[in-house]
Amino acid sequence: MLIDFVPTVGGVSLAEAPAFKKSPGGAPANVAVGISRLGGSSAFIGKVGADEFGYMLADILKQNNVDTSGMRFDSNARTALAFVTLRSDGEREFLFFRNPSADMLLHESELDIDLLKKARIFHYGSISLIDDPCKSAHIAAMRIAKSSGCILSYDPNLRLALWPSAEAARNGIMSIWDQADVIKISEEEITFLTGGDDPYDDDVVLKKLFHRNLKLLIVTEGSKGCRYYTKEFRGRVGGVKVKPVDTTGAGDAFVSGFLYSIASDPSIFQSKNIFTGD
């Protein structure tokens, strides 16, 4: 969880932006808020700085009925910051300040084990895998959740600028790939993880990314909608026509929706009708 600074003017680069507005950010936190707004029950586990930004983020989670008992506050590191803009060409530009930030310093000993054991779904990304101690805490949390019967949900949420190298990012993301029950991935991430293969080729997805423990793999395609794959069936759901303003957080809102649906009705894994709407 971090603070996103977003330009007050759209369609400009970070250097051209005249001013920035602060907003709460961080993919797993976004998902937790989204689930709560849909009427579900969610909690957030992670660390922020014992600073004004950290307290602000905790308050925003509380205002959105997200359980914050798993949050930790570090007095020796600051809350992470990110500057995000949507350029005129439609591409997002990120500039991160983490050197190190508090989120990177979550220790395994600081995990709320009872909170993990109570969860029905444990959702995570890959940024927490970049370096220890957070990496070890992340892997331990997965192990505890899995042993408690939790569904493990993974959205790699590639942010290449945060990794030491592209190879480190690819290896890090794939290091826990076969443990997830549910994976959401974008077209661009397919191309990156497969070394340049066609993201629209079902054979590429099934042979290189689908694994035997996986219950559901979803490929998002922006305005076109998404594709889905299970052991028994696969298909496509078209997108809803809208006039886009800013796509930041759109993938997290999508994840909130399908995780809320899974929590409400686990038979979603077995019934193709749920995907097609028939």
From TrEMBL:
Enzyme Commission no: 2.7.1.4
Involved pathway(s): Glycan biosynthesis; starch biosynthesis
One GO molecular-function entry: fructokinase activity
Any matching Pfam family: PfkB
PROSITE patterns associated with the record: PFKB_KINASES_1, PFKB_KINASES_2
CDD domains: bac_FRK
SUPFAM superfamilies in alphabetical order: Ribokinase-like (SSF53613)
Gene Ontology terms: biological process: fructose metabolic process
InterPro entries registered for this protein in UniProt: Carboh/pur_kinase_PfkB_CS (IPR002173), Myo_inos_IolC-like_sf (IPR023314), PfkB_Carbo_kinase (IPR050306), PfkB_dom (IPR011611), Ribo/fructo_kinase (IPR002139), Ribokinase-like (IPR029056)
Gene name tied to this protein: 11442434
Protein name: fructokinase
Keywords annotated in UniProt: ATP-binding, Carbohydrate metabolism, Kinase, Nucleotide-binding, Transferase
Catalytic activity reported: D-fructose + ATP = D-fructose 6-phosphate + ADP + H(+)
Family: Belongs to the carbohydrate kinase PfkB family.
Domain Carbohydrate kinase PfkB stretches: 2-265
GO cellular component: cytoplasm
Stretches that traverse the bilayer: none
Function: May play an important role in maintaining the flux of carbon towards starch formation.
Native source organism of the sequence: Medicago truncatula
